What does this fold into?
Amino acid sequence: MLGLKKHDTQLLIIVICLALFAPFLLNPFPAGSAMAQFNAGYPDLMQRFAIFGIFAIGFNLLFGLTGYLSFGHAAFLGIGSYSAVWMFKLLGYNIIPGMILSVIVSAFFALLIGYISLRRSGIYFSILTLAFAQMLFAIAYSDLIGRFVGTPITNGETGLQVYTSDPQFFHSAAKPDIPHLFGQKMQSTYTLDVGAWSFDFNFGYYFCALVLIGMFYLAIRIFRSPFGLMLRAVKSNQQRMNYTGLNTKPYTLAVFVISGMYAGLAGGLMASMDPLSGAERMQWTASGEVVLMTILGGAGTLIGPVLGAGFIKYFENIFAKINDNVLHSWFSFLPDGIENFMVTLVHPFVGKGWHLTLGLLFMMVVIFLPGGLVQGAEKIGATFRRKDGKSDDAEAKAAKQRNPAAE
It folds into this structure.
């Protein structure tokens, strides 16, 4: 299928099913039930699942294949967002020009940063990328370039957004005043009510999902290409490759630029869902988040970054909403004293303390599943295969006992 091997085709089908059926998979509980708190099928969160999945896939191409750990990838995410918003301000709300410019500008900055940073490896490379990202964050937050040229470029801490006074040369009264795809609003949503369940089908999410599927397919082709094999060799022993006379710099720089383009595309999609860009998207914490996504899902695997991105964004948005009122409703069947004790016990792990829960889960994954969630899934699959194998052996032995002549 599409030039892929059987295993890769299966992974692609899994991602397609997860993306297309997300409104159903993420809303397993009835809308009015106590467990509805854990439903994650609303448009804004589903969009974030897809967008950060793209971001993590791109980061995994660099880190998973070459072993080069970048602490500054959020810079390209922010650059992509700023580029898309500028297209909205200058041309109009059609998202295609904004996404194209996001990828191009991010590739340009990735080329410059990668050319300098890749002169070093290991921790020195990581610190260089972090330094560049923090410099870009400081420039964006203070709008240093805007002050120099005399017009706002990033609009500082307020953030860049679209105003009615902006040129928007290709905008007309017949087109929506929000981001759209050739007239189709990105925020348009169709809600399907089935009994006590409610499912939202958002156009913006499905657009992001299709982009995610396309970027995942491209990542598979890169992984399985001779270029991908060369990157794996760099990760295995770059020094030995240099001794053979092979220059690895063009390969590592190429994948760094590709990874930056993925991040820029994700940033452009973020601006396309919400036409506002701020410097907070370029902070070092955002770069650390994509590192966690990749390691948690499984660095160097294909589907791992997608799972890791969904896992972290789920905790960030679902567990952060659980407050004391919700906890009291959960434990209301208990006597008052025990109810208050349980609320006090659980309180540090939810709401503003969701990072603590995520940290504990991350520690458990690193300790018991160094290969991430993908390794966990493989272990579960292997367990079931062993059980099936034992049952097949038992059936074969029973058949031989019933018919010894069959031997």
Q: What stands out?
A: Strands lie at 160-161, 180-181, 184-185, 189-194, 197-202, 276-277.
